[in-house]
């Protein structure tokens, strides 16, 4: 009765099922690992934001990359803004998805080194080729606090570092590029300013990163595993249905000759 399983159609169907099961199981574990990484990343951001601020030079230095453990850590620095050499970062959005610029201002420390400060977002009121009007930063010696961030790269951000842009406009924040442009020692990475608050609310300070959502990776993992479990279950259902159909066909074949030979009644 089960010899049909050796037919070409059923062999192919069985092989497909045997291939799908481990693939779906592996896809489930892939989503599980993505969930675990997301949870760990959120926890890291939370610890960094909750930690007390430390001097920026304790976590970064000229010509060095910001270590992953220091990203989002709150840092402080004392010095003065250098608005003459500030630049804007193109095609950046605010919380309402409005397109504008980020304002990147060099902050000269007491020792002469420079810390790049992302002072926040401003709207793109004029043409992209024109340098926008930027609210002036605080004057004199001030203490600035912000979240330490690593240099931006095309690989990590997906933003192409376009060359030949209008003067004082950039696509990515790179301490190395700014060090070359300024001719000074620039600390690796940059900070997203959190204080002092601008007097008129502009530039708009950047909000803290969302570290509460975990996405649907765990749900996707369970979904893939259910699919993997459904493959053998579905195969069994198909086999039983095939057996039932074949038995019904055999019974019908056996009954047909009996009906033909049965004598007619008066």
Automatic annotation (TrEMBL):
GO terms for cellular component: plasma membrane. Coiled coil: none annotated. Keywords: Cell membrane, Membrane, Transmembrane, Transmembrane helix. The keyword Membrane applies. It is a multi-pass membrane protein. Signal peptide: none annotated. Residues 247-266 are annotated as: Disordered. The chain crosses the membrane at residues 12-32. It is found in: Cell membrane; Membrane. The keyword Transcription regulation does not apply. It holds the Pfam family SURF1. Belongs to the SURF1 family. This is SURF1-like protein.
